[in-house]
Design a protein that fits this description.
Layout: E1 7-11, H1 31-38, E2 44-50, E3 71-74, E4 77-80, E5 106-110, H2 133-139, E6 144-150, H3 152-165, E7 169-178, H4 185-195, E8 199-201
Parallel strand pairs: 1-2, 1-6, 2-5, 6-7, 7-8
Antiparallel strand pairs: 3-4
Helix pairs in contact: 3-4
Length: about 210
């Protein structure tokens, strides 16, 4: 797979999703060397950053009596309730210190609206409110996207599926991602990505 005309979308490689973080993805920091190795091959590099205000509605702490990883019905549908994580301006919201960020063309912050979560790099979880990424990519003439980062079964999958639905050629680099795998969510995510036309590749394929 050639990548010199594609954009690399690095999803949420932040301290709170890495070992010791508030919403740790198992082995999450292992994606960093792989991402740093492949990033220079791409014509553009996009970094997404979860960026929640305190008291965000997706936090279990905002729902008295509810625990992390339960679900709740919010205005836009079912929402997993998460531990407080990636709160704006905190160390947990910062990119992993070993992630090479200097070459980034764009840093896209998402999840900053207090009442709605945002897994996808393209849309809020209401599936209607755009982040503006699609327009940015089209404005630069980019039609091919490769996704890496955290977590495979949530923000990476939602981003890749939305990218494909927006008409971009989309691929996910399996060994440059890690998953939460909440009650079978990883297998379900790969099935949904395949159904949307998202390719599943490895760094050795690039």
């Amino acid at each position: 797979m050639t990548v010199d005309d594609a954009a690399l979308v690095v999803v949420d490689v932040q301290n709170d999703f890495c070992p010791g973080g508030a919403l740790e993805v198992p082995d999450g920091d292992a994606v960093v060397p792989a991402i740093n190795r492949i990033a220079p091959r791409f014509v553009a590099r996009i970094l997404t950053q979860d960026w929640h205000p305190p008291g965000h509605r997706s936090f279990a702490s905002s729902h008295p009596g509810r625990a992390p990883f339960e679900t709740a019905e919010l205005a836009y549908g079912e929402q997993v309730l998460w531990p407080d994580h990636c709160v704006q301006g905190t160390a947990g919201a910062a990119f992993h210190p070993n992630l090479a960020t200097d070459g980034a063309d764009l840093v896209l912050r998402k999840g900053f609206r207090p009442e709605i979560d945002s897994y996808s790099a393209f849309y809020e979880n209401d599936r209607h409110t755009p982040t503006g990424l699609a327009g940015y990519l089209r404005g630069r003439g980019i039609s091919r996207l490769v996704f890496v980062g955290l977590a495979t079964d949530f923000c990476v999958a939602w981003s890749a599926i939305d990218g494909a639905r927006e008409g971009f050629e989309a691929a996910v680099v399996e060994d440059a991602c890690r998953a939460i795998d909440l009650e079978g969510s990883l297998a379900a995510a790969w099935e949904e990505m395949a159904a949307a036309g998202v390719a599943r590749v490895r760094t050795a394929d690039l």
